[in-house]
Design brief:
The chain is an alpha/beta fold. The chain has two domains: 5-169, 3-Layer(aba) Sandwich (Rossmann fold); 185-323, 3-Layer(bba) Sandwich (Glucose Oxidase, domain 1). The protein has twelve helices and 15 strands. The protein has helices spanning 16-22, 27-37, 48-51, 65-77, 121-128, 144-147, 151-169, 206-210, 215-221, 237-249, 252-255, 272-282, and strands at residues 5-9, 43-46, 81-86, 112-116, 133-137, 185-191, 197-199, 201-205, 227-233, 258-266, 269-270, 291-294, 306-307, 312-317, 320-323. Strands 6, 7, 8, 9, 10, 11, 12, 14 and 15 form a nine-stranded mixed beta sheet that branches. The protein has a six-stranded mixed beta sheet with strand order 2-1-3-4-5-13, sandwiched between helices. It is globular and about 55 Å long. The two termini are 32 Å apart. The mean pLDDT is 94.
Length: 329
């Protein structure tokens, strides 16, 4: 009998630079390390050629779109796949998302979990939009190679990610371990009024989301009556203004219940205050959309995981806001 599998993808940027940061000799040693720490009966699968691919920014970025689509589609369609884990972020993924068929998630008995953030924003939201899908907006594990030092500590935390993964896939929140933070999301109400209630969060990386708000993808994501989570990195205020304009033109900002403005950063400069100012030009004038700010989410370390498009308890006490992450303690 075939055991359930966790499928690892290097959907955007290949893992070469991450392997070096972790101190692995090559992709084979990297994969072997994961398999050593992923508890049975789960088994790891991946396409070695895809995760070790080369990236050429001046020639389309990647030349393996068709193979990436087949690899990911096969994992989605396989009822034995319990999770798709994105190794890292990067680029050149938004163009292949429209070629994926997620209809099998409507018939799934065993949920498919998708874990990742940044370039994974659209896919995590799409999977979360199906009854048989679970979208966890959380770190890509290779992120640890760049935020935990020295190398031994990074590898130890990387191993912990894989060891606790079965608990997460069971919908349970692991006990606080190492440098991970499992929440809850802590924030501050800076605009509007809200009461303690249950909310649904959608969204993620603003630049990625803005590229996918139109057409069938945008229609499927349906922000109506939900709280829109936004965060980003390396985006200047004028570029953020363009992305917000895309959300406004698509009608998203007219239909959300509220906004969660998470961490925004342009290199070492905090741009969250600039985002709050820009939102004044894009939010509807006929109602005061509530805005919550937080540093729990975004391209930050540690990063709180949040289950997208599922009812989460939001507690409000004056201006202090606490939102569950969606995993059972």
């Amino acid at each position: 009998m075939t055991t359930n599998r966790v499928h690892l993808i290097a959907h955007a940027r290949p893992i070469g630079p991450d392997i070096t940061r972790f101190g692995f000799a090559d992709a084979d040693e990297y994969v072997a390390f994961i398999r050593e720490h992923l508890p049975p009966p789960l088994r790891l699968t991946c396409n070695r050629r895809l995760i070790a691919a080369e990236e050429d920014p001046w020639n389309g970025g990647r030349v393996d779109d068709a193979t990436r689509i087949r690899d990911l589609q096969s994992a989605i369609d396989d009822p034995k796949t319990v999770a798709v884990v994105a190794a890292g972020g990067g680029a050149y993924f938004s163009r292949i998302v429209p070629h994926l068929n997620l209809s099998s998630l409507a018939r799934r008995r065993q949920p498919l979990w998708t874990l990742g953030f940044s370039e994974m924003t659209t896919l995590v939201n799409l999977v979360a939009s199906y009854r048989g899908g679970r979208g966890l907006y959380w770190l890509c594990p290779n992120w640890l190679a760049w935020h935990v030092r020295p190398v031994d500590a990074a590898r130890s935390t990387f191993a912990e990610f894989w060891r606790v993964l079965p608990e997460i896939l069971a919908g349970r929140q692991p006990a606080e371990i190492s440098e991970f933070s499992f929440g809850p999301i802590q924030g501050e109400l800076v605009t509007g009024r809200v009461r303690s209630s249950r909310v649904r969060l959608v969204g993620g990386c603003l630049a990625v989301l803005a590229a996918n708000v139109g057409g069938k993808t945008g229609h499927r994501l349906r922000p109506d009556g939900k709280w829109l989570l936004l965060e980003d990195i390396k985006e200047s205020p004028y570029r953020i203004d363009r992305h917000l304009a895309a959300l406004k033109v698509a009608g998203w900002l007219d239909r959300v219940a509220g906004l969660v403005a998470a961490d925004f950063r342009m290199m070492n400069q905090d741009t969250q205050p600039a985002v709050l100012e820009l939102l004044k030009y894009h939010l509807p004038k006929d109602r005061r959309v509530p805005i919550i700010t937080t540093r729990s989410l975004g391209h930050v370390w540690p990063m709180v995981p949040v289950l997208l498009n599922r009812p989460l308890a939001m507690s409000v006490r004056r201006r202090d806001v606490t939102i569950e992450n969606g995993l059972k303690a």
